[in-house]
Each structure stands twice: as structure tokens, then as C-alpha cells.
Amino acid sequence: MHIHKLDQHRPATGRWPRSLLVAALLSIGLLATYANPAKWLRASPEVINHSSLEDELEKPWDWASVSPSEDIEWHACYGGEFDCARLDVPLDWIDPSKEQRVVLAVLRYQAKTSVNYQGPIVVNPGGPGGSGVSFLKGHAKELQAIVGDNHDIISFDPRGIGASVPRIDCWGSTKERHDWELLDESVIDAYPGLLYEAYVRAQAFSEQCERYMNTSTPDLLRHVSTASHARDMLEISDRAGFPRLKYWGFSYGTILGGTFAAMFPDRVERLVSDGNVDYHDWFSLEQLNFIEDSDKIMEKFFTACAQVGLEKCPFALDSPDAIRTRYLGLLNRLRKSPVVIPAFANGTTPAMPELVTYAQFQLLIRSTIYKPLHGFPALARAMVALEQGDGLPFYNMANKQAPTLDFCALNNTSPLTPVTDDETSSWDAFPAIMCADGEPFTDTPDEFAAYVDALVAQSKYAGPSNVHFRLACAGRAVRPKYRAAGPWHDIKTHFPILFIGNVADNVTPLQSARNNSGKFPGSALLVQNSYGHCSLAAPSTCTAKVVRAYFQNGTLPEAGTECDQDYDFFQDPPANVLAEDQDAAALARAVAELSRNVDLQL
């Protein structure tokens, strides 16, 4: 394993339903050509490299305007609110060379005080394929309000993603990608025989992607496993001048954090693992238990709706059982009688008629249970409208969760060009990384059908819309050179890890947090009594206090500690927090803002 010496410098301070379709995960990412970036003279990380801050801020920000460097060289960017750097690292960490390189886009939000400066915390929003740059740009103030303003907050676009280059891109054409996705059906029981069509479609696309890559960039897919990302993160920490890592990872970010801790246990200063993907489930590619809590979330809808009644939940009936029966009746009705949304009925309807089908309804349910505290009221209204033949509330809700693609605005950006807008997550990267991490996919169609049956047995509400994760690996032949898949046992990190799990998480169940914590003796588990994906699915000032104490002074919660969410289903958020507790008020505002606006969907 190649590890650079530590740098000891310290810083001074379309079609609207398509964007809901998880079958986009069938796309497997390849890219075109490697960059051979120019090198800068090495400089201390303290230096912000621009001749005039005023001149710099007058220019439109463009990642391509910054030359890559093998040291982190910060440049004021995005209106001066952030610092940006482009870090040049080897494509292959096992056999590094000067020819094959990757350039990572790194973003920093600086600490607001030098008093008791605690260094940087690296955050990762998950995916894989999520843009850390975009995540930090949107939520830096709130994240810093939780961990403390004596921390810098750093994030980066992992190799192959967003503003990092080369970028994973299966198509080279946004139109071709869009056209391919138009043919997708993501709900495996939408009609008889779909499972076998989906299997062949996934296999064909995997093979096409690898052919595309083999003619343009033969080695990229061999170097996008999480082990490579973890080694990149170590390099970022080293080059920023901190030999040990502080980290907060969400969703897939828990796989990245766990991999880092397993590979470099002595380099862990603090590590929060929030919304835990089960290590064994991920690296074995079994992916069978990840939705075992999903039905608990829908059952919570039936219960909470019955409790609050029609005034706050228009779908309410006298009992949870009656609401469940009503829900299943609507689902079955949509199989036979989809609801038509007319074109141009008013200013909010689509440009052409749309159908609300059984499959589209299932996908909206799948999306809603990621953040049910926020989504259930709108879902109740949309379901009542669907019963009355009105699909517009459903349409508006779907577009709010996944906005309409502006087909006329589609641009083709070279994989060698850093993406500079906020649309920097990459669905192509998700299967590329997931399949590199997992064992080879060897299922026959009939064996995969048995897997589908087992998954649906885990969750009757979410099972049919979640089978495409594993299926995305059908037909893949390229295997990673660098893989750290375990099995992991009895790993002693320099400082204990803090694991966080919701009582019912639709894709990372609480049991996964327990399983992962068991790999790291001395780690702590905080249970948040909320529903949905990751702690940010519902605001919890209690959880924010635990996270802050952990980062500030290393305090771990006692065994059995639980935190409640700040308000319950179908309740209005609290208008004010007690003014006499200013610190708690700031935390409450931060977690409320993050919970409303952060999207951590797998």
C-alpha cells in the first residue's frame, strides 16, 4: 500500500416520473480519457492562492480555472464563502504512476473562530455518486452549527463524480442517457414478465458500458471501489495537515467511513457513522436485509393518521387497519385504472398528458418514506385526490421530490471537464462503485427471481421498488484492483466510532447499525426514535447535542442512549425554541433546516 509522508502543516483557520425511477441505477458508469494535469509548485496549505481577493471574486467561478496540485492549495471560490482546491492523486494507489491520475475537487468552509480550533471535519452525503461539493455548498452553515464553529468543514467529490475528473459517464450524451431511461420500469411487479426483461436489460447495459469504457479509458472501473475512495480521503487529510481524520458520513458514507476505519484504524480521530449500510450486506452483494424496516414506516403512517384524524390527515379512518385497507385498495385500483393528468389544465400540469400508474405510485411511496415526517401530510392529500380521479397533487408532490428534467437545456459535458453547477451527483457512479465493492453477480434469471421473492417478503410495501440495486451488477466483468471487503472483526480504532441509527430506516435498518458497531470494540450506538433514512430524516436537537459533544470533546453516549425527534407526525414544527437556551435554539434551527432540505436518498 502506497502512503505519502504526512504533511504536518496546519491551516491558519422531459418526463417527470423518470427522475424518480430507481432503475436509473442500472446505468453503469464509464468515462472517456484520463487527465494528465499540470503540477504546481508545492505550497503550504495555509496559503490562499490568488493575487487579489477582489479580482478573484469578480470572476465567475469555474473549477477548471484552478490547476491541479499534489498538495492542497486553497483558492477563494463561490463568492468567497468557501475555499476550493483540486488535489492530484494517483489513479492506482497500489502501483502509483505519474501518467494515470485523478483530480479531486475539494471544498472547505472555514472555522469562524480560532479559539480552541479543532481542525477540519470531512463530510460525505452518501450515494455512492453523491457530490460532496454540492452537499457542503448547500448545508455548510447548518453542519457547522451542529459540530461547532471552531471546526472547518471539508467535503469532496469522490473520484469519478461531479467536479472531480475524470468523471464516470456511461454515455457521453445526456440525450442518449435520457432516452435509455425513458424505457425503464423500476417496479419489478408492474406487469408479468417484467423481472426477466429487467434482468436482460441490466445485463445488456452493463456489457455496453464496459465496451464503451474499454475503447476510451480501460482502467477507470478497476479503480473506483471504496478502498480507492478511502485512500483518497486519507490523502486529503494528510495534505490538509492533519494526520488523523474527523469524519461524518451518511448512508453510503458509512461504508466509506467504515472502510477508512478498517484500512487505517490508527488514523481515526472522530468518526460518525449515520444511517448505516450493513458492511456484510454491501460487500457480499447479498443486499437482502436492507429494507427490513420499510414496512414499519408505512405502518407508522396508518397509525399516526388514525391518531390525528381527518383534521390533519385527510386519508384518516377510524383505525390503522381501515386505513391500511384503504391504501391497498387504491394501489390495486391504480393497477387497472391509472389516473390521467390532462395536459395544460392549469399552470402546474404537464405539457402532455401523464398517467399515475401503479408503478409511479409505488415509486412515490419509496421516495416518501426516506423523509416521512415531512412527506406524509402531502402523501395523504395526494391519495385522497387520486381516489377522486385527480392526479395533480400527486404530480406536484412527485415534481417537488424530483423536479422535471428540462430536455431543451440538456448539455453534454466532457468527462474531463469539472462540472460546475449543482447537478453533480452521478447515477452512473452508483453501480460502478457498488459492483466494484461487492462480490461478482452470478445469478441466473431464475435465481434472481428467488431473490426478488425474498426481498418482497422483507417488505411488501417497498420490496418491489428496491430490487434494482443488486440487479445493476448483472453482466459486469471488470473487477477492482483495490478492494477492502473484509470480513472485518475486532478493529480497534485510535478513537471509538459513534454509530447512529433510526428506530426504523427504510434502507439502512437499525440492525445494520448494531451489526456495524459490533465490528469496532469500544464504539457507541445512538438510537434516534424517528423514521426514515439517516438522523437528518427528522430533526432531533438531542442527537445534535450528542454529535457536538463527540466532536468537541470526545464524549460518547452511554449504552442504551436514545434521542427523540423534535416533533411528531402530522404536527406543526415548533415555532420557537426557548430564548434562554441560545445554544439549544441554534442547534434546533440547524437540524430543522437540514431535515427539511437535505436529500440523502440511496
From TrEMBL:
Keyword terms: Hydrolase
Domain Peptidase S33 tripeptidyl aminopeptidase-like C-terminal: 461-563
Boundaries of every AB hydrolase-1 domain copy: 120-308
Organism whose genome encodes this protein: Microdochium trichocladiopsis
Highest taxon of the lineage: Eukaryota
Protein name: TAP-like protein-domain-containing protein
Protein family membership: Belongs to the peptidase S33 family.
A GO molecular function held by the record: hydrolase activity
